[in-house]
Amino acid sequence: MFTELDPQKGSLLISEPFMLDPRFLRSVILLCEYNTEGSLGFVLNNQTNVRIGQLLESIPDCNFPIYVGGPVAQESLFFVHSRFDLLLSGEEVAPGIYFGGDEEKLIEAIQTDRIKPDELKFFIGYSGWSAGQLDGEIKENSWAVQNKYHHQLIFEGNGELLWKDAIIGLGPKYAHVANFPQSPGLN
Q1: How many Cβ atoms sit within 10 Å of the Cβ of residue 106?
Q2: Residue 45 domain flag
Q3: Which of 28, 38, 70, 89 could share a disulfide with 101, CB 3.0–4.6 Å?
């Protein structure tokens, strides 16, 4: 269904609409690492009912949502942000998007209300691929690759809207896919 594009660090991976793996059904992944050794990214639209204040004692009143970034290392917490000016840290994965950073500065920015939910996402776990595995999945049309997108898409809180906007961003040839029902057999 999808055409193959070249993935790179900062690409969005958009699952084909009827992916059989329920962990990645209608998912959008921000690719934070992509090299000959493998790939790492975070599912941007799999929000949990857990809030970061429930996990971190230092910010008990913080209601920022936590997302399931993927099936690997779900006991670990990760984050991406757009506020290098506040955290002065993080690895830039796309223009204006940073992976990780100074946790103390992050906590302080949250406590002083200087960082907002549309500038930061927390993840438990990540999505990972061994060397060549992601390339194979792209060739099998499991994923579409989008390299040009507005960085605010990363921080969209509505998971279904994020997936639809990412599909539409692939161009007019794919826009109709955004309207596919989640379970076509039920129609």
Answers
A1: 23
A2: yes
A3: 89
Q: Residue 105, Cβ neighbours under 10 Å: how many?
A: 16
3-class secondary structure, 31: strand
CA distance 143 to 3: 9
Please give the tally of structural domains in the chain. Answer: 1
Count of residues in the chain: 187
In 134-152, which positions are buried (b, 16+ CB within 10 angstroms) versus exposed (e)? Answer: bbebbeeebbbbbeebeee
Q: Which two tokens stand for residue 182?
A: 């989640």
Separation of alpha carbons 81 and 127, rounded Å: 18
Q: Is 2 within the bounds of a domain?
A: no
Contact assessment for residue 147 and residue 57, using Cβ atoms and an 8 Å cutoff: no
Q: What is the pLDDT of residues 110-158, one digit of tens each?
A: 999 999 999 999 999 999 999 999 999 999 889 999 999 999 999 999 9
Report yes or no on 6 lying in a domain.
no
Rounded distance, CA 31 to CA 70, Å? 12
Q: How far apart are the first and last CA of the chain?
A: 21
